[in-house]
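Troubleshooting entry. Yesterday's outputs looked truncated, so today I'm pasting the complete records for two proteins to confirm everything comes through intact. If either block looks cut off, that's the bug. Protein one:
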Amino acid sequence: MRRKVTSCFQAKDFIQTKEGLVFAVVEQGLENGKVLCFLRYQKLGISWQKLATSQANQLLKIQYPQYLFYSQVKSANLHAVSVADISIHHQPRQRLQLLLAKPNPDKIEQDFIDLCQLFQEQGVKLNDLGVTGSLLLGAQNSNSDIDLVVYGRKSFYQLRELIRLLIVEDKLQQLDESAWLDSYQRRSCDLSYADYVWHEQRKYNKALIQQRKFDLNLIERSAEQESISYQKQGAIIIRARVIDAQYAFDYPARFIIEHQDVAEVVCYTATYTGQAEQGEFIEVSGQLEVSSAGMTRILVGSTREAEGEYIKVVAHL
């Protein structure tokens, strides 16, 4: 099944319903008139409660089953909200501009402002940036990270290189042992700690500013997106050489591989974004999928936790 859709909703946006539920958008475009997403926050009084996956699924199952959704296109259980049920559309670009102009910012907001000003001093156009995560909603606490969104692949790669240079100049800092361990524990990934850090240190999509971690997330929006339906065939582990990694930091990340049975690896979990470079050999554990046209791929991140699924380099340049 093929459908062409256009939409103003993008991954990393948040959408809010009249019940005080906030969902993170996970896919550009609509399916059956609904935004594909996942419940992240619930309004309790005047504050926000962040929900784990099991909490989110249980809450919807008991109180709001209308937001549970099986995607025929993705062959997966997700959450979805009809456009008519959206009361507020939280957009990262707009939120960034509001925070920059905010009087009396709190500590995390000030760290965010300082980071944006540092980038601006280096010639970065802030129009290409947005902020997602807790700062997008105003649900941050003193331990929150900064989750930046970069719109456009060219801007993203330029900012990665700038972060590398700013670390060399000590205007930003590489994550220390405590920050790496915290990041690893939050991810709950299927790599060893040593493997996780080795892969992450060379990505330059995260660093520290004033001892607070920030991450970069690439969103490359196409004016028109084509949806192709895939059916899962079961778990699989393969090894293959990466022949094209230009979309390695996209959402979803894509790695074109050289393999007799599988054409590409697609990844929806941030842990394995940018995980490999062209020419490297990788081991992939995920769900084998076949499209209606017969194209095969491996999906990493078939669930939010991606338990048992991973991408790791086994031979590098």
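Protein two, checking that the full record survives here as well:
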Amino acid sequence: MKNIAITQGDPAGIGPEIIAKCFRDVPDVMRGCFVVGDVPTLRRAAQLLAGPGAPDLPVARLDEPAQALHMPPRCVPVLQLAEIPGPQPWGQISAAAGQAAAACVTWAAQAALAGRIDAIVTAPLHKEALSAAGVEFPGHTELLQAQAAAHAGVGLDEMPVRMMLASDELRTVLVSIHMSLRDAIAAVTYDSVLQTLRITDAALRRSLGRRPRMAVAGLNPHAGEGGLFGREEIEVIAPAVAAARAEGMDVSGPLAPDTVFMRARSTPQRAGEFDAVVAMYHDQGLIPVKYLGVDKGVNVTLGLPLVRTSPDHGTAFDIAGQGKADPSSLTEAVRMARLLAG
């Protein structure tokens, strides 16, 4: 049984609620899992689920991660972090909430790097709250990258990571993550595209047991249309693809971004042409997967010396504290983490 840490996310968002729902609704999936966070925050979330005739969902405090392996079903085990802010007002950005979320991710990363746990699943945090708390990293991916680099004693440039969003139908991997569109376009370089292909190839070879078929989306409409709509495909992306092929990778592109995702999509009626699409920037790659179903998408960080997954949605402040949040994507993230952890 795998010992999987689930970070509570922003305490003002839906993270604690969807965690509690997973422990209640899919106990077999949650075996061996525990929450890194704050016991009162999780108890407040568990109370959201109480209703007429519904049994209370117990929340248990752990002293060590391994205790989660022996917890009864439909009980929420929580490893209480010292000096972490407690419950925060629902749906409000605050430095305290950002501090709590960052502390949970930092603890989980260090535990995974030390071999104390098998995988991390991160519930949603709020990037503005992180910034308000003085955290210098804009999101989970960058924070985990920094922890892994520090553990290895190397610089961030020596610990390159990429974000993959995956569902049963489609996988996309991003050349750049959280930056403005203007900066993202500038980040499309020969080195960044080739590095993304190398990271994707290595990660999917491990999980698929074979060389993945990768497609590379163009940056411009119609993949530049032979230079009529931009020359990045000719001068940057195509040379990187050629270099990847020379290294033995199975890669096609650059291909028109308005059709490549449809070609890669797998359905019960038709297998996709590609195992993954490398997208040039955040929204280009995430919109197709999320459109197919936010409840099925899982965010996977590639390139780290640890397993990290997360649901593909945010903190949903507009419905926080109302008991309406759908835990399906978190359930899929736990399943994916267990699979990747072997």
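Both blocks look complete. Sanity check on protein two: The chain has a mean pLDDT of 95.
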